[in-house]
């Protein structure tokens, strides 16, 4: 039988994120397959809106996160990263407020609260999404096929039930992009799989295969690609039939959202500083030019 790894819903739309409520399940679909579901800031805005809706709309009992195409998500849109880096650099050109002589010399910028970079990043939807997801008490089921890269993987650390298609891989190449991990993953991934494995994923971009993700507690099960969506829907349906108050209270007790928020903020500050630096700009240029980056000029 021919496989349909894309698990199409049959819906035609040009929206990059599609949100549908049916049978108390709010399905959020990443729908930018031509760009491997790379996430832009407007997409994060739609994702944040959807998660905030799940928390406030009593008709929503479960969130189902999925993606169209052969791959769950290629992570943050690197062209967006590049534009943001230029914007921050422009904002701080000539030594903006909060920029030290050392930062001016190295091309990094102050990202501490109130610093010039935070004035820009504080407005960004990605941080609203990450905070909303970390604080979300509605159960989140995720269905993942192909690769989940960067934030495509780190967002899964906030899901409560993760179904992977056979052959799926979790990849977090933050250091290869001269960045640092986000979404509280420096804490959560380390807690889940231990320091050395988390370090290898972050620093060496070692992919975690689907079976290993289950073995290490990052996912619940691996299923054939053609049954990925049905399996995730079945789990979401089971959860939707449970007493919602008890379910959200259980999740709230299990997750320490209050402790995660400062971790997310601390990561954001360093992430922003790295983003606007020369190493990251080399990494983004290399991706755009489809070549290997050369970090040798930077100390
Ligand atoms: N940001 C922006 N565009 C991206 C992207 C990203 N993160 N990932 C993929 N794309 C784009 C490609 O530029 C290409 O666009 P084009 O068709 O206009 O040239 C298109 O999506 C298809 O990507 P391609 O690389 O040809 O697909 P692939 O199946 O060979 O490889 C990936 C898929 C995900 C392995 C590869 O695209 C990749 O490594 N992407 C970068 C992942 C990353 O580092 N993300 C950031 C993590 S912090």
UniProtKB/TrEMBL annotation:
Pfam annotation, one family: ECH_1
Record bears the keyword Zinc: no
Broad class of the protein's primary localization: other
Keyword Isomerase: yes
InterPro entries according to UniProt: ClpP/crotonase-like_dom_sf (IPR029045), ECH/Chromodomain_protein (IPR051053), Enoyl-CoA_hydra/iso (IPR001753), Enoyl-CoA_hydra_C (IPR014748)
Keywords carried by this UniProt record: Isomerase, Peroxisome
Domain of life of the organism encoding this protein: Bacteria
Location(s), subcellular: Peroxisome
Family label: Belongs to the enoyl-CoA hydratase/isomerase family.
The name this protein goes by in its record: Enoyl-CoA hydratase-related protein
Organism of origin: Citricoccus parietis
């Amino acid at each position: 039988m021919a496989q349909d790894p894309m698990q199409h819903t049959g819906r035609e739309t040009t929206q990059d994120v599609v949100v549908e409520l049916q049978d108390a399940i709010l399905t959020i679909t990443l729908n930018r397959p031509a760009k491997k579901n790379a996430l832009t800031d407007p997409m994060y805005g739609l994702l944040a809106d959807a998660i905030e809706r799940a928390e406030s709309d009593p008709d929503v009992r479960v969130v189902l996160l999925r993606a169209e195409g052969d791959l769950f998500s290629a992570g943050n849109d690197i062209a967006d990263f590049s534009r943001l880096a230029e914007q921050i650099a422009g904002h701080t050109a000539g030594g903006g407020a909060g920029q030290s002589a050392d930062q001016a010399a190295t091309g990094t910028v102050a990202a501490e609260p109130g610093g010039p970079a935070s004035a820009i990043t504080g407005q960004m939807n990605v941080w609203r999404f990450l905070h909303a997801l970390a604080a979300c008490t509605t159960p989140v089921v995720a269905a993942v096929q192909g690769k989940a890269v960067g934030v495509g993987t780190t967002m899964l650390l906030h899901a409560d039930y993760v179904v992977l298609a056979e052959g799926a891989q979790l990849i977090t190449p933050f250091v290869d992009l001269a960045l640092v991990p986000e979404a509280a993953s420096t804490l959560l991934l380390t807690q889940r799989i231990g320091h050395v494995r988390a370090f290898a994923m972050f620093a060496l971009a070692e992919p975690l295969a689907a079976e290993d993700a289950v073995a290490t507690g990052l996912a619940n099960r691996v299923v054939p690609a053609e049954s990925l969506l049905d399996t995730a829907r079945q789990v979401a349906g089971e959860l939707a039939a449970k007493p919602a108050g008890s379910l959200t209270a259980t999740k709230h007790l299990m997750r320490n959202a209050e402790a995660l928020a400062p971790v997310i903020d601390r990561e954001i500050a360093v992430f922003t500083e790295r983003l606007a630096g020369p190493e990251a700009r080399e990494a983004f240029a290399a991706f755009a030019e489809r070549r290997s980056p050369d970090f040798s000029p930077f100390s």
